[in-house]
Structure formats: C-alpha cells, structure tokens
Write a structure and sequence with these properties.
This protein is an alpha/beta fold and 258 residues long. It has helices spanning 42-47, 54-66, 83-86, 99-112, 194-197, 200-209, 227-238, and strands spanning 4-5, 19-24, 27-32, 71-75, 92-95, 118-121, 124-125, 131-137, 140-147, 162-170, 183-188, 211-217. The chain is globular and about 45 Å long. The N and C termini lie far apart (37 Å).
Length: 258
C-alpha cells in the first residue's frame, strides 16, 4: 500500500541541498533545489527568479478559493511547485516516485511549516501493484518515468537517461483512505503514464467516492500511445461526463492527436 513519508525525518539521499524562498499568489514559502547541472528546468529557472508554470499553477490554485472543500491530489509532485503553495490553502496528497525529489519536497514541507496539511507518498501511481525501475533525464529531474527493464535506454521522447532505484507502484484507488475530503482537484504529470493511472480497475473506485471537479494533466506524451490505449483513457473520463478543455478554457473539438 501507500508509502507515507514523515517530512521531519525523511532524507533518503542524505544530501544537503540549498533552499530558496519563493513567492506565488501573495504566499512566500521555501523550495529545496537541485543544482542547475542536474535540473536545468525547475531549479535553473528558480535560481534565475522564474517560477516554472507560475500562470498555470496560479489559475489552478484560484479554484481553491472558490470552493473551500477542495483537496489537491498532486501526482508527480517533483519538488513541490504545485503542492507547497496548495498546502497553504488546503489539504494536499502529494505523490512523487523520484527519491531525490521526494527528499527535497519533504524538507521544504518541514521548513515551510505545512506538514499538518500535506500527506507525502513515495510511490508511483499505475494500473498494477508491483515494483518497477525508473529512468530520469540527467539534466531535468522532473522527467522521471517508469520502465520495465533494468537499464534505461531513452526517455519517452528519445533523449538519453539514467537509471533510478526501483519504486513500488500503487493504484489511484489506494489514495482513498488518505483523503480528508470527498471533493478534490487533481494535477497529474507522469510522463505519458497517465494512460495507466486512469483505468476502471485502478482509478474507478476513487472517482466513485471523490467528486473530482478538475483533472489538470499533460497530454503531449499520452497521444503517442496506440489509439486503443488513448481511447481507453478518453472513455474513462467521457463515461463520467467530463469534457476536455485547453489552457485557454476552450472546449477541444479537434481529434485527440492534435
């Protein structure tokens, strides 16, 4: 079942890492960083004063002000760009399989004083409970992904990669006992594995018991799967009367490949 992390005591890497005080939506909180050499995107931008995906995250968090019942489920939390500010506004379940990122997230949760509002899960979400290896892009720790081989050959978009230690996978349904509300919004960024997160057997019970008003998810890698797999993903949502929108709040009318 879910591997719940205690923020005050967790640092699986035994690393020391820098922190940076950041500001988003009139909130100030710490984020623990990598070095730009191994994380040129999130860390590199923060060190240059730019909060990665700030506009998208701010719009997402605005929903919490509209409905105080909403809890956040952050699948693929990385170092906490979404989870840390959300934990200042509501309860959060943050799932992150990369142990180096989880170490940084746990430290930031402790430093920021939001531990009572956030549950940290060191697992990957999939459609089976098993143990899988992981790969990671050497210069962007956010690009970490499950693999079923012992050596990482390439990332989902064909870039070189390194191997990460094995991680236990759980189902989205397994998060149900950890929910403190029956109303939630989900953010999901798992490098194309979304097609395995949202299946009837692995996520149906969660959606049966939690009113999920929004799923904010990456699409670009999902559409690389076969039409049968993509249609299964779409049907999971369409059967529950969801509608797909783009970032401009316009309903999507074009085929899924675009």
């Amino acid at each position: 079942m879910a591997n719940v992390i205690q923020p005050a005591s967790y640092n699986a890497s035994n690393e020391t890492f820098s922190r940076r005080e950041v500001r988003l939506m009139n909130m100030t909180f710490p984020i623990c960083l990598y070095t730009p050499k191994v994380d040129d995107t999130v860390t590199g931008l923060l060190l240059r004063g730019t909060y990665f995906e700030a506009n998208e995250i701010s719009r997402f968090l605005q929903l919490l002000r509209l409905d105080r019942r909403l809890q956040v489920v952050d699948i693929g939390a990385n170092v906490g760009l979404w989870s840390l500010p959300a934990a200042h506004m509501t309860n959060v379940v943050a799932v992150e399989p990369n142990w180096r990122s989880m170490s940084r997230l746990a430290k930031a949760v402790n430093l920021g004083g939001v531990a009572p509002n956030i549950t940290l899960i060191h697992n990957a979400i999939s459609n089976v409970r098993t143990t899988l290896n992981m790969g990671v892009y050497p210069t962007n720790q956010g690009i970490s992904f499950l693999i079923n081989i012992t050596k990482c050959i390439k990332t989902p978009i064909g870039l070189p990669c390194n191997i990460l230690p094995p991680i236990k996978t759980i189902l989205l349904n397994d998060l149900l006992p950890l929910m403190r509300s029956r109303a939630a919004i989900l953010k999901v960024d798992v490098e194309g594995h979304e097609v395995n997160v949202f299946t009837e057997s692995s996520a149906g019970t969660f959606f049966d018991h939690v009113n999920v008003s929004l799923v904010f998810m990456e699409w670009i890698l999902c559409k690389r799967h076969s039409p049968e797999v993509v249609e299964r993903l779409l049907n999971f949502f369409y059967s529950r009367n969801y509608t797909a929108f783009n970032l401009n709040n316009s309903k999507l009318k074009k085929p899924y490949l675009t």
